[in-house]
Amino acid sequence: MSVDSAPRDFPIPEIPSCLQLRTVTKGLIPLAESKKLDNYRMGAHVCLWARQEGRSMFGEYRAAVMMQLRFDGTFGFPGGLVDKGEDMMEGLNRELMEEIGWDPSAHPVTWSDYYSTQVAGDRKLVLHFFIKEVTLEQFIALEKSCLQSRDYGKEVMGSIRVPLYTMDNMYNGLPAFLNNKFAGTSKQQLLLALHHSKLLTEHEISDVILKSQNLKLAPNRF
Ligand SMILES: O=c1[nH]cnc2c1ncn2[C@@H]1O[C@H](COP(=O)(O)OP(=O)(O)O)[C@@H](O)[C@H]1O
């Protein structure tokens, strides 16, 4: 497999003001710092997305963004824990092959897709996050290959597309989606990826967070 495994450092990404929330910024460290941590498990996940023109009857698509329903009933990004002694990029690409049938020799996730590193000291866990744009054609091919993957129906219960629109009742769509249960830091990573990829503006992100929290005040809204 040809993946760029050269060790490099990356600073903490610039976090937009709409996401300057403790839940989002907690534990963010530069990549080089994570390499000094002893006896930490290392995980890597990737947000794969493709531009998508047009709109459905519910709102504008903007993009297809892939998340997956995991064995534990939570949503997360494809990826997982890297084995002891395994190169990080090799481990991530291996996880993608197992979970979504990704062909790493054709389209490897590389360091150029790196976005952030977060550390959960209490769990002795370091989580690296990558964001990769693919074509819509590749995205659709991946959705199909998920069904044939080794882990489908076991660790992974299927890929999903994140709804990026907000419907007329000001809640359904992305705000409602954000009230699901998410694995690890994947909800924060999703919001960061939407900002980084310029799929949502800062104003739209603030608005979506506010609308998703409104449900907690009005649980019977539909
Ligand atoms: O998409 C994600 N983003 C950030 N953290 C995640 C995501 N999915 C899982 N995690 C966290 O990483 C840990 C290991 O991930 P995962 O369960 O995917 O590894 P595995 O498939 O190797 O068991 C989980 O316990 C969870 O805390």
Automatic annotation (TrEMBL):
It comes from the Eukaryota. GO terms for biological process: mRNA catabolic process; nucleotide metabolic process; sno(s)RNA catabolic process. It catalyses: dIDP + H2O = dIMP + phosphate + H(+); a 5'-end (N(7)-methyl 5'-triphosphoguanosine)-ribonucleoside in mRNA + H2O = N(7)-methyl-GDP + a 5'-end phospho-ribonucleoside in mRNA + 2 H(+); IDP + H2O = IMP + phosphate + H(+). It is an enzyme of class 3 (hydrolase). The keyword RNA-binding applies. It is found in: Nucleus, Nucleolus; Nucleus, Nucleoplasm. Keywords: Hydrolase, Nucleotide metabolism, Nucleus, RNA-binding. Residues 39-190 form the Nudix hydrolase domain. Its main location: nucleus. Signal peptide: none annotated. One of its GO terms (molecular function) is phosphodiesterase decapping endonuclease activity. Its cofactor is Co(2+). Its EC number is 3.6.1.64. Belongs to the Nudix hydrolase family. NUDT16 subfamily. This is U8 snoRNA-decapping enzyme. It comes from Portunus trituberculatus (Swimming crab). The gene is Nudt16_1.
